[in-house]
Amino acid sequence: MATTLDYKCPHCGGKLEFQPGTEQMQCPYCDSVVDVAALQNLDEVLKNTPADEMHYHEDAGAAWSEGEQAAMQVYVCKSCGGEIISDENTAATSCPFCGNPVVLSGRLSGVLKPDYVIPFQLDKKAAKDALKKHLEGKRLLPKVFKSEHHIDEIKGIYVPFWLFDASADADLNFKGTRTRMWSDSKFNYTETSHFAIHRSGSLGFQNVPVDGSQKMADDLMESIEPFDFSKAVDFQTAYLSGFFADKYDVGAEESKAHANARIKQSAENAFRNTVDGYNTLTLENSSVRFQNGKAKYALYPVWLLNTTWRGKQYTFAMNGQTGKFVGDLPVDNGQFWKYVLAFTPAYGAVAFGILWLLHHFF
Ligand SMILES: [Zn+2]
Ligand SMILES: [Zn+2]
User: Fold this and answer.
1) 58 burial type by CB count under 10 A (0-12 exposed, 13-18 middle, 19+ buried)
2) pTM more than 0.85
């Protein structure tokens, strides 16, 4: 029986050798001694860890009624491929993603109706005020950014999100080590003990978000998060009036895989934080199971203005619920040089000050 055992040394990975007449195996490379029963046990545990099972019993999105669908229209941007949805009373002329002209491409088809919407709390005036404040005092800014006509192009866009809920059971196996060091008059000793650590428990996940839009950059959305889902309401087409919805290009099924990866990662992190007192800790395997997952499709409100200047795109985006915003702005080099030249004497004085300090200290 002993000869069939094929185990690796937990310390160095070398192939362990059975020690006849004992219940132990030894590593010929690092001299580690390992208890056979413990190894078999660990092997069993790792082999018997159940596979992941992450199932949703409720799917995201609904079907539009014929009347609703007929009242929706889709605009497409020939320049960047962006597609936005509006109701028939809200017309678009420019693309919220790149600023180029959009054309009406027809009635809505082929996408699901949202389950929830977080309505805009902040109106266009609030968005324009925030943008103007952002532009204020930026003397080097090209004129196109400040033109009232351009600022008026800021659009209220609902960004599609797939949201996932789940109560998950999780099992995780870690390997840990503890190291003890001591010395006597001849040698320094290091003893490393290896541990198999098991954790299991339940974890609840709510509204794990997956962005359904490739046109809205992930880092941009992250900078204006969070959105407060407790203020979400059942979707009604009336919420679209005066606003646009980004037509999702990442579907519900595709998003499930992203959500499941996030859920698994979060479970691993959460349980890892409950394991303490080891010098090293490695995750061996994990199993996350749920059958009762729920997927939802929600729209989140964002005020968006993209400005293209000298071939580069600059974005201003504001959370339509909280007012948190991000924006990047260019520096007009023509104006920059005027500015620097005018202030040359001041720069000279600063340089002098620094030189003096350097001499003083060294
Ligand atoms: Zn070894
Ligand atoms: Zn575009």
Assistant:
1) exposed
2) no
